[in-house]
Write a structure and sequence with these properties.
2 copies of one chain form a homodimer. The first copy, chain A, is built from 6 helices and 2 strands, in the order αααββααα. By secondary structure, the first copy, chain A, is mainly alpha-helical. Bound molecules: FE2/S2 (inorganic) cluster (2 copies). Chain A binds a DNA duplex through helix 3.
DNA sequence: TTATTAAAAGACAAAAAGGTCTTTTAATAT
DNA sequence: ATATTAAAAGACCTTTTTGTCTTTTAATAA
């Protein structure tokens, strides 16, 4: 569904949020292990997320990643847009240059609603809501097993 | 939605089918132009489709690509599976290793139905059905404009 | 203030995707 | 037969994605 970088970013963010709800501040090594992503690649991605302003970090002893709790919940879509670009999940499913209600391809009537559902999914779900779901036990997996 | 190769392959196949319904047998240059894909890449992809048995071709004067009309309609899914692999549109949307009803991620309940819709879309639509829709004028685009 | 810790920065590289071009083979027309 | 046409085969290249590793910077603790 998403590319690897987006996948790791989302899993990483949700993991940080889960730990933060327990009063912890995980570091790169812990995050990479828990979300089952490559260590150094995870580091690079977390850095990018900090630079983009999605989360914060501190160096040195006791350092790690954490969220600014004064900021509103972070929809998955914001992260996807930042990593994959604004056009992700917006164009024609068939690859045509334009896609509109009145001029469209043969897949449009079936595909457009699906695309809308995906956009709705990533807009309504946030890093925080997924972390809460996880804690409630509604979902069982974070780490890949 | 699909990768470029799949996109070009599907557009190319539908174009061949549309032309075949008019009694024509298009060549690589024509196909590439009409589906707005790179000339040589299109050639390579059409060749692969022939080798995979999805369509036929003849060399030389009057040569080009065409379908064996004795074979059943070709679902998009068959082409996608051949190009992108069997796992396309089957795994966890979050990238987790397993995905099942009883052990799943927080996105599963929302994502699984979407994934099902995509699989239904590519299973029920065929190269031939899309070509017929195009000819009926239900869809307006094939070439990207 | 020094050692230690952990993120930041950035160089480097492997693999996959996407694309280009030339040569060879086979079909047809003359 | 020969020339012409068009696909097949395959070498080669570029870009993007994914991943690795070392060096630097900043924070903390002793
Ligand atoms: S035009 Fe193809 S999905 Fe809208
Ligand atoms: S477990 Fe994630 S979509 Fe099914």
């Amino acid at each position: 569904m998403f590319n690897k970088e987006t996948e790791y970013a989302l899993r990483g963010l949700v993991y940080v949020q889960i730990q933060q709800m327990k009063g912890l501040k995980p570091g790169i090594a812990e995050i990479a292990t828990e979300i089952d992503a490559p260590l150094f690649y995870t580091g690079k991605i977390m850095q990018r997320l900090v630079k983009m302003g999605f989360l914060m970090s501190t160096k040195g002893k006791g350092g790690g990643f954490y969220f600014d709790l004064t900021r509103p919940d972070l929809p998955l879509k914001a992260v996807i847009r930042a990593i994959e670009g604004a056009k992700a999940y917006s164009g024609c499913g068939f690859g045509l240059k334009s896609c509109s209600e009145d001029l469209h391809c043969s897949l449009h009537d079936q595909y457009a609603p699906i695309r809308d559902s995906i956009n709705n999914l990533v807009s309504t779900n946030t890093v925080q809501s997924l972390a809460r779901d996880y804690q409630k036990g509604d979902d069982i997996l974070l780490r890949r097993r």
